[in-house]
Amino acid sequence: MDSKDYKKFYLIREDVLPESVVKTLMIKDALKNDPTLSIFEAVKQFDLSRSAFYKYRDTIFPVDEKMENTKEFTLILYVNDIIGMLAEVLNKLSALNLSVLTIHQSIPMDNRATITVSLDAKGTNLEIDDVIASLQTIDYVSKVELISMTI
């Protein structure tokens, strides 16, 4: 494979993206939601040049948009070492209609552990952000991160 043909992909939080990239995403969403809207009108509405829009439009997309067909992803949860913690996480995942593909719980150190779960979300219309937000509501879960996904 020629290295010029290979493109790396990155997951990056929206708050660190340049303004022109964020506006491109907003324009793409507006165009998707209103088929009568022209690109000229959309870029004018969001105060972005057409050249900037064309530069980014085929290179940036929301994670959930690319998950429409596969819906498989892996999360890592940082938790306190509390009896029943894994069961509570699994109960929450079941309530969200998520199927667990793989699961790993680390050996606790200093009363902290990690739980890594690979999930199949075909049984739900939830977006990744919704799943993460729901898992963060569990007592003694300090952080939840997306670490991989199938695209």
TrEMBL record:
Source domain of life: Bacteria
SUPFAM superfamilies reported in the protein's UniProt record: ACT-like
Domain ACT: 74-149
Family: Belongs to the UPF0735 family.
Full protein name: UPF0735 ACT domain-containing protein NCTC12413_01289
Provenance organism: Staphylococcus arlettae
